Amino acid sequence: MFDDQFTRKEIVSPVDGTFQAYYVRKGKPGSPCMVVMHGHGSMGNQLFTRKDIAESWTAFLIQNDFSIISPDMRGNTWMNATVVEELSAMLKVEKELLKWDRLLITAGSMGGTGAFIFALRHPEQVDGIAAFGAATDFRAYCQWLDTQELPILKEIQKAILENYPTEESMDLHCAWKHADKLTMPIWYLHGGADELITVAQAHALVEQMKNQPNFHYREIPGGNHDSPLAYYVETVTELLAG
């Protein structure tokens, strides 16, 4: 579904010279470009292979003729330092081709986590964020994961520790520790009963951003990990208007 709207491209990594894939749709020149980053267990093609995302997110973006970039991000890397620099290089290349007026990152779960990380590392490249069910503090999140038994949560913890083996690397990519860098408009949604990324992760960032007028938080009472995804169109519309 919508796969004919996208072109698979590759960029040479500025870090190690490998070829890294991403998917692009060219929209109307001068329109916003949406970077959509996938969640744990998916890849960049989720925009047309995951039915719920395709029928809501992708359909909305195509209907509005936005440019779209969806990177593979080397899989379950949780936006590690290498992927940060690869995405930065990718955006520099595509900006010359797509001619966007604003670059907005819209993503959930691991992708939403990556949106915050990329924005704090390269705030000059990001004009706004819509994040859904994201982690904001790897140290606290891994401590919480230690208390959990679900296999998917053990898998997530393993992936995070592989990509962030030291406390220093975790802190460098910690949204709430670097909240001062997140000055762009942000809409952030989290389910109040999220079973995969505890809502305490949201509360930590909300506390740091309480005096930031461009930060908007919405908690869905009783909502699970996927509950915020249903508000994508509404949230992105608010981001565009803001």
Layout of helices and strands:
Elements: E1 7-12, E2 19-25, E3 33-35, H1 46-49, H2 51-63, E4 67-71, H3 81-98, E5 103-108, H4 110-121, E6 128-132, H5 138-145, H6 151-163, H7 167-172, E7 186-191, H8 200-208, E8 215-220, H9 232-241
Parallel strand pairs: 3-4, 3-5, 5-6, 6-7, 7-8
Antiparallel strand pairs: 1-2, 2-4
Overview of this protein structure:
The chain has 242 residues and is α/β, with parallel strands linked by helices. It has a single domain, classed as Rossmann fold. 38% of the residues lie in helices and 18% in strands. An eight-stranded mixed beta sheet has the order 1-2-4-3-5-6-7-8, with helices on both faces. Helix 8 links the parallel strand 7 and strand 8. The longest helix is centred in the middle third of the chain and has 18 residues. It is globular. The protein starts with 6 loop residues before the first strand and ends with a helix. The model has no long low-confidence stretch (mean pLDDT 96).
